[in-house]
Amino acid sequence: LIMEETGKIFKKEKEMKKGIAFPTSISVNNCVCHFSPLKSDQDYILKEGDLVKIDLGVHVDGFIANVAHSFVIEASKDKPVCGRRADVIKAAHLCAEAALRLVKPGNQNTQVTEAWNKIAHSFHCTPIEGMLSHQLKQHVIDGEKTIIQNPTDQQKKDHEKAEFEVHEVYAVDVLVSSGEGKVRTA
């Protein structure tokens, strides 16, 4: 589908490459991100109440656009998400909104980190420890400048402070947990 849709644009530019920049992944419930099943994995049928996160990336001439969206199966105005799940979703949404306002020329990456921590904690949630949002450049999906979520003490010392500049582009990944914010291998 990605190849089909990107093939419809910039048709006159015969040499321009377009297509997949980051593989589509579907992560369900406690799986934080970037899940891509193996053929040997058992099938999973989505059910009412599952929190589903879809993530993918495309590029046109090496300029990357990443997108992710989370939703709850069968949630609606008549059957809203409640409790801790609602807290996590609202915290993540507000963190994304904060990044939208803070990632601008003259601001620092640490301002975003601090805002995310404050927002998540106001909902008694935790950003996922050590997750990075990366600067994007042509043909580069993990640029030098990053925004770190919930850094450990060592990461606070090691992570480079950076100022956002005009014409920079970032893939902002917001990952929030109702738990302690630490990832574990399955």
Automatic annotation (TrEMBL):
Matching CDD domains: PA2G4-like
Pfam families the record matches: Peptidase_M24 (PF00557)
Domain Peptidase M24, residue spans: 13-147
Family under the similarity heading: Belongs to the peptidase M24 family.
Alphabetical list of PANTHER family matching this protein: PROLIFERATION-ASSOCIATED PROTEIN 2G4, PROTEASE FAMILY M24 METHIONYL AMINOPEPTIDASE, AMINOPEPTIDASE P
Protein name, entry field: PA2G4 protein
Originating gene: Pa2g4
